[in-house]
Design a protein that fits this description.
It is a single chain. This protein is mainly α. Helix 9 runs parallel beside helix 11, helix 10 packs antiparallel against helix 11 and helix 13 packs antiparallel against helix 14. The chain starts with a helix and ends in a 6-residue tail after the last helix. The protein has one domain: Ammonium transporter fold, CATH 1.10.3430.10. About 70% of the residues lie in helices and about 0% in strands. A hairpin with a 3-residue loop joins strand 1 and strand 2. It is globular, with a radius of gyration of 22 Å. A two-stranded antiparallel ribbon has the order 1-2.
Length: about 425
């Protein structure tokens, strides 16, 4: 009997130590990533409200519904073939294979290298794909045809987002050279910001841009949208740890501090020039959130302060320059806030990284080189491919509405309803 008990005890110990048991799903990790997925989903209508308050009242519904429509369309694209292009077996460092078409092989088994099911990982990543497409809408609101918008969004997600996601997170060439992008500075914000510039150049300026008043019609709506973004961003960044662990806690705190530093900096900058506007403060917060995204899990909370401060300075003066040039109508400043803010954030990751990776201040200057390569490649690829997509759509079905439709507003001309009685 004693021998039997000893054997059972040894068998239990060996089972506990075995890799199979060590690789079991962690319920806490799974719950945290699922909650984070829901938080990121909340950000998508948050983008719609953030943008919707900044347009003229005749375009409020049309602006908000762009983000909501994307939640449906891009989710389906992701499930059918987007996920496998981003996270399928690596093909020459450029794109994922097709083994996960229509979620083939995605289920309850663990995602490699994690303690969560592959289904949880897939749905978490789907939210990133959706919100990235949503961010671009701010560059062409008030003048894009809804049908053309849908075609553009599907083409962009497939040809721009999915390949870049594979490069950085799916085993592609940027991942292979050691690029650090914790939650999407390269994949989400640089790609969206640069693409916003490209499509804005193709679609052209709004009628009356630079001469007619185009003031935000409902700043409280924009503040509500920014609040949802700040709240959801904790899932965006801390959820990217893919576990309920100390790295998630660090990313959570760093995210909050960067947003706070950036909002305060933008407030002071606008106060010096004119007045501490509500619109400026919330825009600063979003710029700080975009900047900390690539760095959140790699830098200390203290390092998040200069990241947020510089992001605000870069975003603030980028907006002044772009608007002052009158050469491009990036309607809601997507390039300045997301593209420029996260370009700084990706570079800052290579400077300040000390957690799980080493940057310049930790004695690894080569990390800066990898980060610069990622920035340059993403800028070039995103702009070139997006410009080509927009040109093709413009030549075949037309990107923008007719002049009379733009004059009456897209709420009525595209959706047959108004935001206000």
């Amino acid at each position: 009997m004693r021998t039997y008990l000893v054997m059972m005890l040894l068998a239990g110990i060996l089972t506990w130590l075995s890799p199979a048991c060590a690789a079991e799903m962690n319920p806490a990790d799974n719950a945290w990533v699922l909650i984070s997925s829901a938080l990121v989903l909340l950000m998508i209508p948050g983008v719609g409200l953030f943008y919707g308050g900044m347009v003229r009242r005749k375009n409020a519904i049309s602006t908000i519904i762009l983000s909501f429509a994307i939640m449906g369309v891009i989710t389906l694209q992701w499930l059918l073939f987007g996920y496998t292009l981003a996270f399928g077996e690596d093909v020459k460092g450029l794109i994922g294979g097709l083994e996960h078409l229509a979620l083939a092989g995605i289920g309850m088994d663990l995602q490699p290298g994690t303690t969560i099911p592959s289904m949880t990982f897939m749905i978490f990543q789907s939210m990133f794909a959706v919100i990235t497409v949503s961010l671009i809408t701010g560059s062409y609101v008030e003048r894009i045809k809804f049908s053309s918008f849908l075609v553009f969004s599907l083409a962009w997600a497939t040809l721009v987002y999915d390949p870049i996601a594979h490069w950085v997170w799916g085993g592609g060439w940027l991942m292979q050279i050691g690029v650090l992008d914790f939650a999407g500075g390269v994949v989400v914000h640089i790609s969206a910001g640069v693409s916003a510039l490209a499509v804005a150049l193709v679609i052209g300026m709004r009628k009356g841009y630079g001469t007619d008043p185009m003031e935000p019609h409902n700043i409280p709506t924009t503040v509500i949208g920014a609040s949802l973004l700040w709240f959801g961003w904790f899932g965006f960044n801390a959820g990217s740890a893919l576990a309920a662990n100390a790295v998630a806690a660090n990313a959570f705190v760093a995210t909050h501090i960067s947003a706070a530093a950036a909002a305060t900096t933008w407030m002071l900058l606008s106060w010096r020039d004119r007045a501490p506007s509500a619109l400026g403060i919330v825009t600063g917060a979003v710029a700080g959130l975009a900047a900390i995204t690539p760095a959140a899990g790699y830098v200390t909370p203290l390092a998040a302060i200069p990241i947020g401060v510089v992001a605000s300075v870069v975003g603030y003066y980028s907006i002044l320059y772009i608007r002052g040039s009158h050469r491009v109508d990036d309607s809601l400043d997507v390039l300045a806030c997301h593209g420029m803010g996260s370009t700084w954030g990706v570079l800052a990751t290579g400077i300040f990284a000390t957690i799980g990776a080493s940057g310049l201040i930790s004695g690894n200057p080569s990390q800066i080189v990898s980060q610069i390569i990622a920035i340059g490649a993403t800028w070039a690829y995103s702009f070139t491919v997006t410009y080509g997509i927009a040109r093709v759509i413009d030549a075949t079905m037309g990107l923008r509405v007719r002049d009379e439709e733009e004059a009456v507003g897209l709420d009525i001309s595209q959706h047959g309803e108004g935001a206000y009685a």
